[in-house]
Amino acid sequence: MDRINSCSQRERHFSPEEEKELERDMSTSQILNKVRKDASAGSEYVEVRGDDKPWRTVKNDQKMHVGVLGGLSLGHTAIEAIHIAEIHAVESAVVAAGAAGGAVAVGGGAVAGFALGVAEWHHAYLNGKEQHAALVKDEMRVAMLTHLDLPQGYKTEQFKERDQAGRTSDSTVQKMATPFATTDKSLIATLQLHADRGMNAARDFLASGWSKDQFMNAHPDVAKAYARDAAFHDGFDALVWAKKQKGPEVYDQAIKKLEERDCWYAASNITPQRM
Predict the structure, then answer these.
(1) Which residues of 114-141 are buried (b: 16+ CB within 10 A; e: fewer)?
(2) Cβ distance 51 to 227 under 8 Å?
(3) pLDDT value at position 180?
(4) Concatenated DSSP letters for 86-102?
(5) Cα separation values, 37 from 87, 153, 180, 253, 258, Å
(6) 3 state DSSP class of 147
(7) What confidence score (pLDDT) does residue 66 get?
(8) Could you read off the pLDDT of 109-164 as tens digits, one per residue?
(9) pLDDT band, residue 4 (cuts 50/70/90)
């Protein structure tokens, strides 16, 4: 059944600015980077994807692959200590200190060298750089989730997985809140559109009776969007989460709100199912 044809009214919901952005349809990553830049929270482009791992998962994965070199583990700890705002400033110093077995001075402090070889120090640096990227992405992901209309229980779980994000008043999450509420407010509708595409895909998945892998294999466009688009990914997972909750209330409420938004898109000639 065509869900859009079930709309009882076609009054326009979106502002002209929102409709313009919905037609433009910037990617989720582009939107988050624009808002972050407008918030003066970072100018370098950071690719935010649906399949990004939270910082804590990245950190734990690294610990599992440290290897048998005790020095490497110490070097990894040193990089984490130096990190995270200053990681780019210590790249050359880390490699040089590793070769000399010396110390790395950062901001007036020093991290003792552990007589590691250059390769071990460089590996530790790469681990630190990966963690830095994960931390930045967590901040941007939490900022996005804060503004998406998804089941609150799902969002709470995602916030807990990234509970280091947004802790301080000068965090990226807090800084991004200002442009999201002012100059970039119209972009929230586009993020929600991407999440709703994920929710509509999840609705089809739940009706299919297939496993998730079977569904993704049969719908490569969905699989691609799920991996690439953070808002699509969270929309998909949020509806699946809602379906698993006790009683039908959470899922039914999510569907009711989704169908209402789908009617808003229809009134503005926007296709919510488009990837």
Answers:
(1) bebeeebbbbbbebbbbbbbbbbbbbbb
(2) yes
(3) 98
(4) SGGGGHHHHHHHHHHT-
(5) 20, 30, 12, 35, 30
(6) coil
(7) 58
(8) 444 444 445 556 666 677 888 999 999 999 999 999 999 999 999 999 999 999 99
(9) low
pTM over 0.85: no
Residue bearing tokens 């399949």: 51
DSSP the chain: --SGGG-S-----S-HHHHHHHHH---HHHHHHHHHHHTTS--S-----TTPPPHHHHHHHHHHT--S-HHHHHHHHHHHHH-TTSGGGGHHHHHHHHHHT--EEETTEEE------HHHHHHHHHHHHHHHHHHHHHHHHHHHHHTS---HHHHHHHHHHTTTTT-STTSHHHHHHHHHHTTTTTHHHHHHHHHHHHHHHHHHHHHHT--HHHHHHH-HHHHHHHHH-HHHHHHHHHHHHHHTSSSSHHHHHHHHHHHHHHHHHHHTT--TT--
User: What pLDDT band is residue 49 in, cutting at 50, 70 and 90?
Assistant: very high
The larger pLDDT score, comparing residue 91 to residue 241, is at: 241
Question: DSSP code of 52?
Answer: P
Q: Are 141 and 171 in contact (CB under 8 A)?
A: no
For the chain, the average pLDDT equals 83
What are the backbone dihedrals phi and psi of residue 111, each rounded to the nearest 5 degrees, phi first?
A: -115, 120
